[in-house]
Amino acid sequence: MTSVTLKTWLPRAIYVVAIATVVHVTAVAYLPTGVMNTLFRRFPADYARPDAAERFARSPMADATMRHITMPSPDLLYTACIYDLTHAPLRVRADPKLENYWSVAFYAGNTDNYLVVNDRGANGKPVDILLVSTSGVKAPKKVPDGARVVVAPTDKGFILVRMLAPDYAAQKDKLEAARERLSCTYWRD
Amino acid sequence: MAKNLAKKKRSRARNAAQSHFLHRGLLYGSLTVLGILLGIFTAWLSVRSPAAIQSVTVGAWHASLLSGSADADIYTRARIALSALVVLNREETIYFLATADDKGEPLRSRCSYRISGAPPQARWWSITAYADDMYLIPNAEKRYSISSANVALDGGKFSLVTAPSQPANAKSWIATPGDRGLVLTLRLYNPTPLIVANPATLNAPAIERIGDCT
User: Fold this and answer.
1) What domains are there in chain B, each with its CATH number?
2) For residue B89, which residues of chain A lie inside 8 Å, CB to CB?
3) Rounded to the nearest 5 degrees, what angle is found at the Cα of A181, between the Cα atoms of A179 and A187?
4) Which residues from chain B sit within 8 angstroms of residue A72, using beta carbons?
């Protein structure tokens, strides 16, 4: 009797475990991309359009009302850009001229932080990066003078500029002037 | 007569076969749904905690060694996507999280804690209080964090307090009103090369509960 029950239910249990394993791994593996896609969908439409003249969207200082990104730092001023390199290569320029910490961080569609340039690394020089697709789609015919070409691991991605602002009110003019010197645009040569 | 009998037999056999297939279909349909639900449930269980999988623990603080890295496994990536989307990689910034005090008691926003020690080894650091949903805790004063730029130092050591309301004698205070789980985050921007190589060498700030919880 026991062996009959086992013979009947073992294949069924294996079937359930196999389905559960496939669903489990797929769900965990896809989750970061799903979260990033949600972030892309919620990005301000004026800056997300393929024809937007400037793609960098400026956030106010983080407070408890900021709910689109978990763990926002209230000490940093964020400026963000999303891209899809199937439209065109992306040119990112930054010349904040700030004494405090700042960085430009590049994220792939699966949340990997594949590149960071900070104030120390830039060493006082402007950042000028041409981001191109890994699939070769819309490859640039020419590269802007002085730009560094970076191949993005995924066509869709996210760029986040962080500027240290422990006292935003006192440094507002300097910080907003620094944001004027950021640029994220598609490069259509 | 014999013909009719044979016809009835064939019909019964057909009905039995149909019933068998229906039964198997229903059974395997149910087993498939069960497998899907089980897969989703175990996936949720495995990623719901903000604690990193490949992590280092120093005092009450834990840090992922693979945050933001292309070497991160799928579980680390998923946990980070839910709890701390778009973090920087370890060379740029190390994030230490604490969800319990030095005695191992879970942190609650309605309790008061003193966080103290030698300044962490980084160009710039901050300690920020989050609710257990990983968002900032609403407070009228907008006191969410203390950093190396504004922390009070005494004899080379820093000390700050997290509490639901402003303590009488605390120079550095983070407001944590309400009653929910509390997550403290220590950010080290441009950590020293020694910390990057071995985050376990952190000057881990002590977290001690002070007084009774409100």
Assistant:
1) 89-210 (2.60.120.600)
2) 113, 116
3) 115
4) 135-136
Task: List beta partners, residue A57.
Answer: A80
Q: What is the pLDDT of residue B52?
A: 55
- The amino acid at residue A146 is G
**The CATH number of the domain where A82 resides is what?**
2.60.40.1610
Q: Are B75 and B46 in contact (CB under 8 A)?
A: yes
Provide the token pair at B206: 């002590």
Q: How many CB atoms lie within 10 A of CB A46?
A: 11
Cβ B113 vs Cβ B180: under 8 Å: no
Spatial distance between the Cα atoms of B200 and B63, rounded to a whole number of angstroms: 9
Q: How far is B98 from chain A (nearest CA, A)?
A: 13
Cα-based angle B90, A58, B150 (whole degrees, multiple of 5): 55
B24, two tokens: 């198997």
Residues 24-43 in A contacting B (C-alpha not used; CB under 8 Å)? 24-29, 31-32, 35-36, 39
**Contact B146/B126 with Cβ under 8 angstroms?**
yes
Instruction: Answer whether 0.80 is exceeded by the pTM.
Output: yes
Say which of A19, A101, A111 has its CB closest to residue B123. A101
ipTM computed for the complex: 0.80
Q: What is the mean pLDDT of chain B?
A: 88
Q: Tell me which residue range forms the domain holding A96.
A: 45-186
Give the separation between CA A36 and CA B69, rounded to whole angstroms.
16
What CA–CA distance (Å, rounded) separates B138 from B60? 25
Question: Which residue, among B119, B118, B115, B121, has the nearest Cα to B159 in the 3D structure?
Answer: B115
